[in-house]
Amino acid sequence: MRIYELMKVLRVLVIEDDALIAMLLSELLAGMGHDVCATAATEGDAVIAATCHRPDLMIVDARLGRGSGVSAVEEILRAGPVAHLFISGDAEKVQTRQPDAVVVRKPFREAELARAIDTALAAALPAQA
Fold first, then answer.
1. Does residue 128 surpass a pLDDT of 60?
2. Quick one: residue 80, left, alpha or beta (phi over 0 = left, psi -120 to 50 = alpha)?
3. When comparing pLDDT for 65 and 36, which is higher?
4. Selection from 102, 9, 91, 101 nearest residue 55 by Cα
5. Mind listing the pLDDT tens digit for each residue in 48-80?
6. First to last CA, the chain
7. Predicted TM-score (pTM) of this structure
8. DSSP code, position 121
9. Domain that holds residue 28
10. pLDDT in tens, 87-119
11. Which residues sit opposite 84 in a β-bridge?
C-alpha cells in the first residue's frame, strides 16, 4: 500500500511555470484523490503560496521562468519540513545541488509520479515525527 493511500487527502502545492504541465499535474493528482491547494509559476509566488496554504506535499519544477524551484524549496524549508519532489528535464543538475532530492525526469508517467510521491513522503516522515 502506498503511503499517500493511507492519508485521506494530501494538500499539494504545484510549482510549475508551464501552464499545461501544471494543469496535467493537477488532473493527475485529483485522479489520485488529492487536493491541489494552489499552483505557483514563479519562485516568489511559490514561497508565498507555501506560507499561505501550508501544503502536505510540493511538486516543484526545478527550473522556473522567473527564479528557481530549487531555491524556492530551500526558502520554504527554512520555516519547517514539507515533503517535496522535483520534476525536471535535468535531474542530475538538481541532484548536484540537493543530493537527497527526489526527482522525476520530464516527461514522466503517472506511475513514476506516484512512486516519487511515496518516496518524498517517506523521506519527510522522520523530519516531521
1. no
2. left
3. 36
4. 9
5. 999 999 999 999 999 998 999 999 999 999 999
6. 20
7. 0.89
8. H
9. 10-128
10. 998 888 888 888 899 999 988 899 999 999 999
11. 58
**CATH code for the domain in which residue 47 is found:** 3.40.50.2300
Domains of the chain: total: 1
Residue whose C-alpha is closest to residue 98's, from 71, 76, 124, 129:
71
The three cell numbers locating residue 40: 505557483
80 assigned to some structural domain: yes
For residues 72 and 68, what is the distance between their CA atoms, to the nearest angstrom? 6
Strands (DSSP E) along the chain, which ranges? 11-15, 35-40, 57-61, 83-88, 103-105
| DSSP symbol at 100 | T
Residues 6+ apart with CB under 8 A from 28: 110, 113
**Cell numbers given for 5:** 493511500
Q: How many helices (H) and strands (E) does the chain have?
A: 6, 5
